[in-house]
Specification:
The protein is an alpha+beta fold. 33% of the residues lie in helices and 21% in strands. Strand 10 and strand 11 form a beta hairpin. The protein starts with a helix and ends in a 25-residue tail after the last helix.
């Protein structure tokens, strides 16, 4: 799946990693900030956004026959992919004080194999292309779910966690330290990178599916993920329109935590406004974007043209 969806925009050169290209064309302040804000927890910024969903639920009912299994989460994921296709800085990451443009697009998602307190939880990491449509998103996510929903079944993340869980504390400490340091210089085994839910464009959780409001979730120091989004429960609220008339809308709350070292707050805010615009017209997600914008900070000649 990773190889099928890997971006082949630029040739790999000196200073690049197997999972991303070094970003060299940035404002001077952005080249310095990662040396000052050395961790993701130092660099977290927080956004909150309300998404009205009455029209999205109507869209799902209208297209449930042609797109089986379609859900709000699929629409939101497709909306994020569309935004990233136009604002590629969102798919950057910082490693060892340097900024990289990720050469793939993936979401890590926590899922339960059974909806009980004792139910097993696992993580899936579907890969996407910036040109993917809503239908592509549903298909790829559903494939991952079907491969991981069976109770007792192990995916690569589960298998690695199980093996590590058998190690004595001192060996586990040494192993994790070794892996983290190898990752800093881009030498962590590729198999671990592909299995790791922490090496991803975006971490997404839909805690609203179990009736809980969204929360701000911290970013992880391990891995390369610089964005965490939590979707909250559906709720109805009374508001006023521009004429002062009351209206009742159904909405969900998004709580977003981002690494400010990869792009500034204005870029993030404009991206969230674009997401709102995309979600206001979900039919646009049925077609690919007219153009995919490639990260201009890499500063190399493209080889895919």
């Amino acid at each position: 799946m990773y190889k099928e969806n890997k971006f082949n925009y630029f040739a790999r050169g000196f200073g690049d990693r197997y999972d991303g290209w070094r970003v060299r064309k940035v404002d001077p302040i952005f080249s310095v900030v990662p040396f000052m804000l050395r961790t993701r927890t130092d660099s977290e910024i927080f956004f909150q956004e309300k998404i009205t969903i009455d029209h999205l639920e109507a869209f799902i009912r209208e297209h449930k026959a042609e797109i089986p299994n379609l859900s709000l989460m699929h629409i939101f994921m497709a909306g994020m992919i569309r935004v990233i296709s136009q604002r590629p800085h969102l798919n950057r990451f910082v490693m060892w004080n340097k900024i990289f443009a990720r050469n793939y697009l993936s979401f890590s998602i926590a899922v339960k194999r059974s909806m009980t307190d004792e139910g097993e939880e696992t993580l899936i990491k579907p890969y996407f292309l910036p040109s993917d449509t809503l239908q592509d998103v549903v298909r790829k996510v559903q494939l991952e779910l079907e491969n991981n929903k069976q109770v007792g079944q192990e995916n690569s993340s589960d298998a690695i966690s199980k093996v590590l869980g058998f190690l004595p504390d001192f060996l586990l400490r040494i192993f994790v330290s070794l892996i983290i340091n190898l990752d800093k210089v881009g030498l962590m085994p590729k198999a671990l990178n592909h299995a790791s839910p922490f090496h991803t464009s975006l971490f997404l959780t839909n805690i609203g599916s179990i009736g809980i409001e969204s929360v701000y979730h911290h970013l992880y120091e391990i891995g390369t993920c610089g964005s965490f989004i939590a979707m909250g429960k559906k709720k109805r609220e009374t508001s006023y329109d521009k004429d002062g008339k009351t209206k009742v809308e159904k909405s969900i709350q998004l709580k977003i935590v981002l690494d400010e070292r990869i792009c500034d707050g204005f870029y993030y805010a404009a991206s969230i406004r674009m997401l709102q615009k995309v979600l206001a017209n979900p039919a646009s997600l049925l077609l690919p974007p007219e153009k995919v914008i490639v990260d201009d900070g890499v500063g190399k000649k493209r080889i895919d043209l």
